Amino acid sequence: MTRDRLIELINQIFVDQFELEPEELTPEKRIFEDFALDSLDIVDLITGLQRKFGISLRDNKDVQQIRTLQDIYDLVEKLARDNPDLIAKLPE
Amino acid sequence: MPEWQGLVPVGSDHISAAPVAVSPEISKSIKRHYRRSMGNAALFATLAAQQAVAESGLDAEILGNGRAGCIISSTIGSSSEVYESTKAVIEQRFNDLSACQFFRIVSHSSAFNVANFFGINGVQLSPCSACASSLQSIGLAYEQILAGRQELFLAGGSDEVTPIVLGSFRHLYALADSDELPPEELSRPFDARRCGLVCGEGAGILVVEEYEHARRRQAPVLAEIIGYATNCTGSQISQSDSASIEACMRLALADAQIAPDDVDYVSAHATSTVAGDREEAAAIRAVFGDRVPVSSVKGQLGHTLGASGGIETAAVLAMMRHGVILPNANLAVVAEDCAGLDLPTAPRQQPVRTVVKNCIAFGGVNATLIMRSAEAGA
């Protein structure tokens, strides 16, 4: 999976779940301040990422450090590297 | 349409009770931040409350000054969300549930969602009592204001139709089911051929406000609440009885300090069930005889459950404004056990100044609200 495809899938979560416009989704955006998400939304974000990528995130301590969209891209990319089998199952 | 629509019980082709599909354009008029914690009942309540706030000329400063409250209730917080959650749990799909799922289900969901939407930070209550829910909400708002605890409330109720609700009524033989009548004629309060209720859904929200406070801000005053009472049978869970309904109306008349002859119209609960209409008719006959016109708008609207008190009170206010009593739709032949009442079958032009509004609910709960038109009270 390419990084672009991974970003596309993550961005789709923000469009579908949080009703954000695709053009708003630039890597430097801060998810709390710029997207006005709150702690309830973060629970849904974790659920959305888990469902989309088939990975377990609820107890991942790195999740608590997420501040920007870039942070999410980096975290999922790292998990993808660590779990190539899971990521390989994703639709291209 | 939700998948459970296919589970709506249909004993014959003549039962008409499908849930409303809320247009995305309408639901998305509520920002996602607020909408995420709303089931349909809370969404209906918020949309209705928007209309009430606009018509009353309320602003954020008044609603957020701690002297405004919110009392809104329903039979179940959101029965459609209860269904979705239960299904997910049974199928062990916990991770499919939204973080907001529980906020859609809890019994006071409509109350806190409306309070949150408008920034209301005073008293928030939700006296859930099935089909008496919203009239109890309005009555409780009246009592809170009389006690000086708040200056105004958004008060009323909301409800939605799902298999949990319809299946339960059907199981009790309380849902209308007839091969002989078209769907639009199934809800027929006080009629000899009545055979049960037809479910509706929606919300009815009113602004209940301390009189001088409303006058000072030059709010349009539609009517004055002059009396309220609620009681229960203490002996029934599936229906009320004529003795307790009569007692409830007499308590409300005493609270209003008026006599039965002072009343121009009784807005009955009458849901078109055999037992319910019989008991309420007997109670109204005992208090008012045949001197006061009586009708139930459930022939037109169906039974909107926990929302019915709010919606039907709004209908009463419209009747006051237009000087007309809405008839008992589909009343062709008055049932013997409902005889001895004045039951209009056509719109009746007359002053509608003082009105008794009843709601009756599972649990043997009764509630009676008495209103006087703004014109008569001025």
TrEMBL record, chain A:
InterPro entries documented for this protein: ACP, ACP-like_sf, PP-bd_ACP
Pathway as given in its UniProt record: Lipid metabolism; fatty acid biosynthesis
GO CC annotations, alphabetized: cytoplasm
Modifications made to the protein after synthesis: 4'-phosphopantetheine is transferred from CoA to a specific serine of apo-ACP by AcpS. This modification is essential for activity because fatty acids are bound in thioester linkage to the sulfhydryl of the prosthetic group.
Domain called Carrier: residue spans: 4-80
HAMAP family hit by this protein: Acyl_carrier (MF_01217)
The protein, known as: Acyl carrier protein
Organism name: Oligosphaera ethanolica
